[in-house]
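Thread: "does anyone have the structure for this chain?"

Original post by V.I.:
We have the sequence but no experimental structure in hand. Need at least a predicted one for the grant figures.
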Amino acid sequence: MITRFQRFLFGAMLLAAVVMAVVLIRMRERAHDRLIMAADSQPMNTLSTALSTAQVETITLLVANDMDGSLISVERKFPMPKDPNARARVLMQKLLEEYAAPKSTHPIANASGVDEVFLMPVPQQKGGQGEMAVVNLNAVFVQAQPSGIEPETLTLLSMIATLHANLPQITEVRFLVDGQQKDTLAGHADLTRVYLASDTQTAVRQ
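Reply from O.Q.:
Generated one for you, tokens below.
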């Protein structure tokens, strides 16, 4: 038979275990928050440092035109960092600024929709040639994106074409939203697939 003391001891140990579990969970949440903050601030700080010493270059933006569903080649001059990942992010930032500008041919009311762009080798099982760009969009940009298969597809194709035009080694592109895979951009354009740079050729106005 369990004595009163044993029951008391068991209850005390159970209470201590619950308290310890709560403390550990809270500590893990705080550590996770710190990691996210560090990850968010580091790319911005790195990009700002890179741009401070960057040379002005001519870049090509493939801008979507809603009137005829095409991509129009537009040249702009901007300071461009040397690091390919940073260059890719600046390209996306400048493209979205075109869409947020007055009288845009493809209006999207958010000029800061790309949190980061990561470049990595194409997987060996797919031939291992070129690089894949992983474009991490943010949820605010997705909410600002006009819904519909054509405007959503034009947004993605313009990003892909702009990356490939300035960084020809990019042959494939994947899109994430807040670091997670999302089924569609705004209800239509597929974000679960890998896009090829060659997918944009028919949309580019000659």
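V.I.: this helps a lot. The two ends are 90 Å apart (CA to CA).
O.Q.: and The first strand starts at residue 55 and ends at 65.
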